Give the backbone structure.
Amino acid sequence: MAVIERTGATGRARACKRAADALLAGLTDEQLAKLDRLPVVDPELGGTPLAWLKAMPSAPKAGHVRDLLGKLQAVRAVGIPSDIASRLPEIRFRQFVREGQASPAYLLGRYTTHRRRATLVAVLFDLESRLSDPMLPCRRGGCHPAAARPAC
């Protein structure tokens, strides 16, 4: 039985490495350096950039717009390719996202460099869409107090 378990574990590890390879394919050294800085404490923020990015306001209000835009700009500054999610089966990609969203920065810092970077790529891709969605009503005037009409 131990041989079967080892074979299964080896296969899972190989599949995980290939998935991480797919997510990191084509990223430049500059992009990788930006990813590596995300789980490191920034004294200016009082925490890690990753924790700041993951902290989402509960409701899109006019006061949150500047913060959301700053986060969206920070995510887009890394330059994650728009086709990244299509490089893996959706269930595997979502697994990277869930893992990254559930893990605090200090735990991600303990991952191997390759796995950490792949997880961060998936999280940033997901964050970009999550940060853009609350901004849609604001583009239509929905965040301004005078614009109390439905955003249909």
Remarks:
- The longest helix spans residues 113-139.
- The radius of gyration is 18 Å.
